UniProtKB/TrEMBL annotation, chains A, B:
<keyword id="KW-0720">Serine protease</keyword>
<dbReference type="GO" id="GO:0008239">
    <property type="term" value="F:dipeptidyl-peptidase activity"/>
</dbReference>
<dbReference type="InterPro" id="IPR009003">
    <property type="entry name" value="Peptidase_S1_PA"/>
</dbReference>
<protein>
    <recommendedName>
        <fullName>Dipeptidyl-peptidase</fullName>
        <ecNumber>3.4.14.-</ecNumber>
    </recommendedName>
</protein>
<dbReference type="GO" id="GO:0043171">
    <property type="term" value="P:peptide catabolic process"/>
</dbReference>
<keyword id="KW-0732">Signal</keyword>
<feature type="signal peptide">
    <location>
        <begin position="1"/>
        <end position="21"/>
    </location>
</feature>
<dbReference type="GO" id="GO:0006508">
    <property type="term" value="P:proteolysis"/>
</dbReference>
<comment type="function">
    <text>Catalyzes the removal of dipeptides from the N-terminus of oligopeptides.</text>
</comment>
<keyword id="KW-0031">Aminopeptidase</keyword>
<comment type="similarity">
    <text>Belongs to the peptidase S46 family.</text>
</comment>
<dbReference type="GO" id="GO:0070009">
    <property type="term" value="F:serine-type aminopeptidase activity"/>
</dbReference>
<keyword id="KW-0378">Hydrolase</keyword>
<dbReference type="Pfam" id="PF10459">
    <property type="entry name" value="Peptidase_S46"/>
</dbReference>
<keyword id="KW-0645">Protease</keyword>
<dbReference type="InterPro" id="IPR019500">
    <property type="entry name" value="Pep_S46"/>
</dbReference>
């Protein structure tokens, strides 16, 4: 389910910095025309680029595209999953059964969903540079820059009528205004049953061969009528061939291609192993809980799926970091960059020591890596999270806005309150089991004499403490939370709720650790990361693409299988393969043959390609991106990357990294022969 | 093609020693009844064991089994490949088209094929021990033992009417007489087309999922009539389930489970990397040669396939040796064995220093590892081999029999002459290209000043030398070889053939290296390996099975998929998967859908299981072994192991090692619906 959605809001500790890639994810403002011409003999015209750019939308965490003149939009089932779930009811389980509107009237309006289309951009780097080279302290200049950008945004918005964001590329090397058209009347048209969309489930996630119909259709309305987009991608009936050029247009979330070797070593040696250990233990305890009965299984299902998915990704990243060849490559990249820098004395003076300084920050970070992670275990409980939020928020609100923790500043309060007052069900019994186990782990790791442990347990065993906290608290009651927040710091300090008391007791340690992390580590990492990015941009300019920033990018590559330990992974799969895999696992979950496909077998051309893999770079956020051929037609729908594609977060393609797509031919075959959606298929393909 | 045939004659440098396995490949004389009972609740009866033992045959390099009361025998297509090829003619290409005898008259008699069936065994350890504890020098005792065993063999043969071999288990811990029934009238009954037998070719070799119909049927005749075997395995129509117990009866060739960590380190650091480097370079030059034209492609095809296959295996072994977890496991095994030994002072005195002595031998071996391998490059040329053989053989023949190199002693001369006078076609142009490149590599590695290099080149460039040698020699003419051999040492010394002169010039270096290798390395490895094996046997006796020795063994396990990097490998494949893989690769070689199967699609039940994987241990030599269920029925036919099964050469099962089988249901489906061999299918299944 989670796969590769890119969380719209994410706390990132490390600085993102650009790549040595010769492939890359390129802004449409400077597409890789030379590379495309030299490698594939293809030069996209201005019209081609505009056509593709103005067909592609972002959902916030994923990508989508216009695919008909009547406002049809195609994205992934797992991107639309939350909407499909929200539209379901006890009578209609659209997740389980799929949703198929055969008339406009049957289309269902989504709530809280806005799609954005990048329409126009403007480079404002020169204005920002001119301002920043003027006099003033860094703080003054930063404030001036903010004011300038606000002014520029307003002017651009006024001129174009678009929603405008400032986009920073190359870690501050360039400033752009991105103007979006926005659409908020989005209606669900067609979603397959989850078993077809997510056949193979977690075992097959991040893998290939795959056999998933991971698609959903929306239709966008304006003023109660289907929108008539100026650009949309026709779905190709001809499909793609092995080795054929394809281009991927979407919104990749984040890459970290200039992370230094020292940062990666920290991640390899401490950060990821610690996190994996914590999550493995948590998964184990959820599984024990799930084994208690059907209701416990249901309550813990989401947590288990999320942990499994996350662990698969984390382990994939760790395996990559532990691969000596990968590390040698990263080191060679870093050495080459520094060697080129060394030939430019004026740059050496300005940037030369950034790598050593970054290494020093990592050395300090290592000293508290384990303790810091262990103290965060309260996150496993939504009730502990509520208590922490109440204690911290009420204290922070007494400070002026700019002195507060970031998440409690005025512009963030909406999100914070939303979380605090969520009426999502709370399973205190489950949270207790998990918290007890995580506390036990902290005791085992830090020792009973550790001051934080003593404060957390108060002389009790972990099980006793967890029970007292979670059975004694009243915070499951949203009105109680509202009462405490309304009463402010005083009410919170007077509260005798055991969880509030616990949060108060641990708050000083939290504030000390956070201050150290922000002041000693993150700010230094940010400064050195920016210096490295600047050095790179001074040397290379647009010769390398900027790191992904969640904004629209174009990547290119070809349909291609790849060698793997045991054999050779094919470029395509077919419906035959779906039937094979279901039978090979004796139809057991998650390899159960989807019922409608089973029933449609005699109508299907089983040789129809179902999924394919390409060398086009993609990362989280690309889910739902269209694969486009030279003619600007949609030939596939990105829905995953294989486990080797994690590499793309750090560096350019290796010989095994692949993006995974639903083949347009497989999609049309399903619409016509499985789901009886001929009109929809015709709308996608008509000329 | 090569897959896992176990070469009947093989030069093995290292000593084979037994395993710490708790699974294992067990002699039928002491089957793992306790393990089977505790793990699977199954205790095979005496009758069950006799029934299975007396149904299984060896082909010399592979395994086969009686599968009908009328003498039908089932083995692998790749085991029978040489016979099928020999029976083919320009008019009838049975390799390409398959062979299908629909009457007894159409069955074709094979030449030079003898199958052996282990009928009875006798433990003669006590007699040998009694003799060996008597007085005498080691040489005298060895001669006495040989005489005793010859006498015992004769007596057993006389008593039973069987062909008798002495079999040494536990590296000399036990001596057994194995009495075989032999069959030499073997007729080809049915072989599928090669594309069906070997679908996926080299890319899929050692992998899973697989989709191969790797089977061939023979029928054994005696006195012109089909033999009526006392025991044969009925082919099960019910098949096996995921997780079900299966037992594998066959002739695994060789395992090395007590090899010391020092030996494995040598193999990991030097032996395998050097060999892989030499072979990779050779493969590259063959491929360049193949690219010159269709005839060159044809000439080099076998060499290329052989090298590809071998490299895949070598790289698999190397990856395993480089896996820290594997090495840690081996070390732990070794440490545990030595720790148990340390508690028995009488054994410490006798065996305690064997591991350190073995390490010292490896240290010496390391000093000349590279040079020794490089000097062997002449092996790439059959003509160089002929020249070397003539020079060495004529010199050796002047010595008394027991002083000669092993391969020139009287009992080996037949094989040596057979190779020397082979009329197989010689492609001197191809050999020249390869020899030139390999010589260049030696120069690059050892330097032009190296004495061996100077002797080999005689002032010429590698290309010049190779050209002079291979275009100037007359040794392609078999009569010339016969003339030289008949003339003996004198004729060879007088020869002006450039290749003979070359072999003469390099002979002293060869003899010096070989003497060092045999006297300093191999004899010491043999002695220390035996001491370690003895120590183990003294501690454990039959609690661990002996290393494989090419003789009949029983292994057990269950049908089971396994986790792999990207996903989960299923326990079975189906015909659907065959069609999927062919279409996924666009029907390109080696993934072309076999024509007859393509034509049979509408008749086939595509969900029929085609291949499966099990945890039963197997190694080279097991090809063609029957998988048997509790009822003693044949449910599958072993034809490969996955790449992780290479582990089984060194240690017991890990969680990914699997044997790969043709499913009996897939076999019957093919006989009935693809090959129109209903009578054969009925013969296999009738009750």
């Amino acid at each position: 389910m989670l796969r590769r959605l890119f969380p719209a809001v994410v706390l990132v500790l490390v600085t993102a910095v650009p790549a040595l890639a010769d492939e890359g994810m390129w802004p449409f403002d400077y597409p890789p025309t030379d590379l495309l011409q030299s490698r594939y003999g293809f030069t996209p015209s201005r019209e081609w680029l505009e056509h593709v750019q103005r067909s592609v939308l972002t959902t916030g965490g994923g990508t989508a595209a216009f695919v008909s003149p009547d406002g049809l939009v195609l994205t992934n089932h797992h991107v639309a999953y939350g909407q499909i779930e929200k539209l379901s009811s006890p009578e209609h389980d659209y997740v389980r059964d799929g949703f198929f509107a055969r008339t406009r009237e049957e289309e269902l309006r989504c709530s809280g969903l806005e799609l954005k289309l990048l329409w126009e951009t403007q480079d404002v780097t020169a204005q920002v540079r001119a301002l920043m080279s003027g006099p003033g302290t860094p703080e003054v200049l930063a404030a001036k820059r903010k004011a300038l950008l606000t002014k520029l945004e307003s002017a651009f918005a006024k001129k174009t009528g678009l929603r405008v964001d400032t986009v920073t590329l190359y870690q501050g090397g360039e400033y752009w205004l991105y103007g979006y058209r926005t659409f908020d009347d989005v209606r669900l048209v067609c979603a397959p049953d989850e078993q077809a969309a997510n056949f193979g489930g977690d075992p097959d996630n991040f893998g290939f061969p795959r056999h998933d119909l991971d698609f959903t259709f929306y239709r966008i309305y304006e003023n109660g009528k289907p929108v008539r987009p100026e650009h949309w991608l026709r779905v190709s009936e001809g499909g793609v061939k092995d080795g054929e050029l394809v281009l991927l247009a979407g919104h990749p979330g984040r890459t970290n291609r200039l992370r230094t070797a020292a940062q990666l070593e920290y991640e390899r040696d401490l950060d990821r192993p610690i996190r994996i250990g914590l999550q493995e233990r948590r998964l184990e305890v959820y599984r024990r809980y799930a084994a208690l009965g059907a209701e416990q299984e249901r309550r813990s299902r989401n947590a288990i799926r999320g942990l499994e998915n996350n662990l698969k990704r984390e382990r994939g990243f760790l395996a990559l970091l532990r691969d000596p060849a990968f590390f040698a490559g990263k080191r060679a990249e870093e050495d080459a960059l520094r060697a080129r820098l060394a030939k430019r004395p004026e740059l050496v003076a300005k940037y030369g020591d950034a790598w050593d300084r970054m290494a020093a920050v990592q050395a300090e970070l290592r000293t508290r890596a384990r303790t810091r992670s262990l103290r965060e275990i309260g996150r496993v409980s939504s009730l502990v999270d509520v208590a922490n939020t109440l204690v911290r928020l009420t204290a922070e609100m007494e400070k002026p806005n700019e002195k507060r923790f970031r998440e409690y500043q005025d512009d963030q309060l909406g999100v914070t309150r939303f979380r605090l007052f969520s009426r999502a069900p709370v399973y205190a019994d489950m949270e207790e089991v998990v918290l007890a186990d995580q506390l036990q782990m902290v005791v085992d790791s830090l020792g009973a004499g550790d001051p934080w442990v003593r404060a957390a347990l108060g002389g009790r065993t972990p099980a006793e403490a967890a029970h007292a906290l979670l059975s004694g608290t009243k915070l499951a009651d949203v009105e109680e939370r509202q009462r405490l927040l309304a009463g402010g710091r005083k009410a919170v300090e007077a509260s005798t709720d055991p969880l509030i008391a616990w949060a108060r007791a641990l708050d000083p340690a939290y504030r000390e650790m956070r201050a150290w992390m922000e002041e000693r580590i993150e700010s230094a990492e940010s400064v050195e990361g920016l210096r490295i990015a600047e050095a790179r941009f001074q040397l290379d300019g647009h010769a390398s693409p900027p790191d992904a920033t969640g904004t629209l990018r174009l990547s290119y590559g070809k349909v291609a299988g790849y060698p793997q330990t045991e054999s050779f992974v094919p470029p395509f799969t077919t419906y035959y393969g779906l039937f094979d895999r279901a039978h090979a696992f004796d139809d057991r979950d998650p390899f159960t043959l989807p019922k409608r496909i089973h029933e449609a077998e005699s109508r299907l051309d089983l040789a129809t390609p179902l999924n394919f893999v390409t060398t086009c770079e993609s990362v989280g956020g690309n889910s739902g991106s269209p694969f486009v051929n030279r003619a600007g037609e949609l030939v596939g729908l990105d829905f995953d990357g294989n486990i080797q594609s994690f590499l793309w977060t750090f560096t350019t393609a290796d010989h095994q990294s692949r993006s995974v797509a639903v083949d347009a031919r497989g999609l049309l075959e399903a619409l016509r022969k499985v789901y009886d959606m001929n009109a929809l298929a015709d709308e996608l393909t008509k000329r």
